[in-house]
Design goal:
This is Cytochrome b5 heme-binding domain-containing protein. This protein has 222 residues and is α+β, with helices and mostly antiparallel strands. The protein folds into 2 domains: 59 residues; 98 residues, Cytochrome b5-like heme/steroid binding domain (Flavocytochrome B2, Chain A, domain 1, Roll), CATH 3.10.120. The chain is built from 7 helices and 4 strands; from the N terminus they run H-H-E-H-E-E-H-H-H-E-H. It has a 4-stranded mixed β-sheet. A hairpin with a 2-residue loop joins strand 2 and strand 3.
Length: 222
């Protein structure tokens, strides 16, 4: 039975390929050899690329250090955390609240679509969805209701996704009115000390009691 099948197989090879069975098997062997040789050459190159990609992916996926609380910092100090220094966290602020956005570096880091917001309070820009330099500020005065609502949505998103690490220090300028009020508050004490109405103890004997006069009859002691 097996011999009959073998004879039938050889006849089929000759009928379909026009080659003798010996020639057919030789061609098949050569083809398999070439396939394995080519596969080994290109396979090693692909393996090297795959290993390189794997190492790069692992480096990118290394756990980030925990966020560091900075407390109150100025706008100038916040600019140091714009992603230009990979050793520093990536920070940005909304409405004066600073958030660590390091794990979204692909969006806010160098080359990302929102990279220009990093290291700044981008409240106005986010509210207006503007990428202009004049809007890269925390000043939200004059914004409309729709823009303020959009900014609120951004703030909620940041509060739920990122860790707050500090606030932007604000300075309140001292106005002339406040300075004048402080000056007026200090005047009565100075005037009272220069009136000469304060009785001094006598060196020899009891001090004389001065007669109290109405305010309208005030006279200066000489």
């Amino acid at each position: 039975m097996a011999l009959h099948l073998w004879e039938t197989f050889k006849e089929s090879i000759t009928a379909y390929t026009g080659l003798s069975p010996a020639t057919f098997f030789t061609v098949v062997a050569v083809g398999l050899t070439l396939y394995y040789v080519v596969s080994s050459l290109f396979g090693s190159s692909n393996d090297a690329h795959a290993q390189q990609r794997s190492r790069t992916f692992e480096e990118e996926m290394e756990p980030l250090p925990p966020p560091v609380q900075l407390g109150e910092i100025t706008d100038e100090e916040l600019k140091q955390y714009d992603g230009s220094d990979p050793k520093k966290p990536l920070l940005m602020a909304i409405k004066g609240q600073i958030y660590d956005v390091s794990h979204s570096r692909m969006f806010y880091g160098p080359g990302g679509p929102y990279a220009l917001f990093a290291g700044k309070d981008a409240s106005r820009a986010l509210a207006k969805m503007s990428f202009e330099d004049k809007d890269l500020t925390g000043d939200i005065t004059g914004l409309g209701g729709f823009e303020l609502e959009a900014l609120q949505d951004w703030e909620y998103k940041f509060m739920s996704k990122y860790v707050k690490v500090g606030t932007i220090k604000t300075t309140v300028p001292v106005t002339n009115g406040a300075a004048a009020a402080e000056s007026d508050a200090a005047k009565p004490a100075e005037e009272g000390s220069s009136n000469g109405d304060i009785a001094k103890p006598a060196e020899d004997g009891p001090s004389e009691k001065k007669e109290t006069k109405p305010a309208g009859d005030y006279e200066k002691n000489e």
